[in-house]
Amino acid sequence: MTPRHPGSDDLQPSAMVNLDIARGDTPFRFEAPDDSFGIDLVRSGGLSLAPVANFEDSRTAQDVGTDLPKVGFSLELGGAVRFQPSENFRLSAELRKGVSGHEGWVGTAGADFIVRDGDRWLASIGPRLTWGDDTYHDAWFGVAPADSVPSGLPAYDPGGGIHAYGATASVLTQLSRHWGLVAYAKYDRLTGDAADSPIVLTYGSRDQFWFGAGLTYTFGPALD
């Protein structure tokens, strides 16, 4: 799950929550750092289907730097489909609906190339696409006519569509029998109506960066 303010020009720290179960000598399944939190309901071969939850942090006028309405904390609920035909390659897609905050639809799609030595270490990298509907784009990138004068920005009504492309990379290594370290970075380049938003052009950036790091803990028997 990743708190963020789309369109910001700052490096943005991110939060990742993950829980997985493996039995015996079976390695943990690969999960990308930008996957939403979910539990598989269907798993067959390399295909899995899961309900997912994600959130985007709120955005205030102070965050933007001018007088625009607040976008509240956005809880997103939806579904994910993932297909991993081999140990080294995975395809994934998610579609989520904001039930608070922006209240729009947002979707992501990506692929990951994975190299690993069991659970001792793992590295991944892959491309990403992000899509949003009109409601999502209005919340994050639009300027309503009533907000134009107080914000000093021209009115802007973006349409829906693909609004970012980029890549995500991660590294995970085991430090001891139970403790491990994970780090990741994500880059998006805004495109389309999102990239042309006066909010982005005046107070933000078309280049979006996120990073994260944390510790992992393995319960039960661990690596020798």
Low-pLDDT runs of 5+ residues are: none
Mean pLDDT: 89
State the share of residues found in helices, binned by percent. 10-25%
Number of helices: 5
Secondary-structure element string: EEEEHEEEEHHEEHHE
Q: What's the end-to-end separation, in Å?
A: 31 Å
Overall CATH class: Mainly Beta
The gross shape turns out to be elongated
CATH topology: Porin
> What's the number of domains?
1
The CATH architecture: Beta Barrel
Question: Any idea what the radius of gyration is?
Answer: 19 Å
Please identify the structural class as seen in this structure.
mainly beta
Number of strands: 11
Largest sheet data? 11 strands, mixed
Indicate the proportion of strand residues: over 45%
Notes on the structure:
- The chain has 224 residues and is mainly β.
- The protein has one domain (12-18, 31-217): Porin.
- 13% of the residues lie in helices and 46% in strands.
- It has helices at 61-64, 134-141, 145-151, 192-195, 198-203; strands at 12-13, 37-38, 42-44, 47-56, 74-86, 89-98, 105-117, 121-132, 161-174, 179-190, 207-217.
- Strands 1, 2, 3, 4, 5, 6, 7, 8, 9, 10 and 11 form an eleven-stranded mixed β-sheet that branches.
- It is elongated and about 65 Å long.
- The mean pLDDT is 89.
Q: SSE layout and pairings?
A:
Elements: E1 12-13, E2 37-38, E3 42-44, E4 47-56, H1 61-64, E5 74-86, E6 89-98, E7 105-117, E8 121-132, H2 134-141, H3 145-151, E9 161-174, E10 179-190, H4 192-195, H5 198-203, E11 207-217
Parallel strand pairs: 1-11
Antiparallel strand pairs: 2-4, 3-4, 4-5, 5-6, 6-7, 7-8, 8-9, 9-10, 10-11
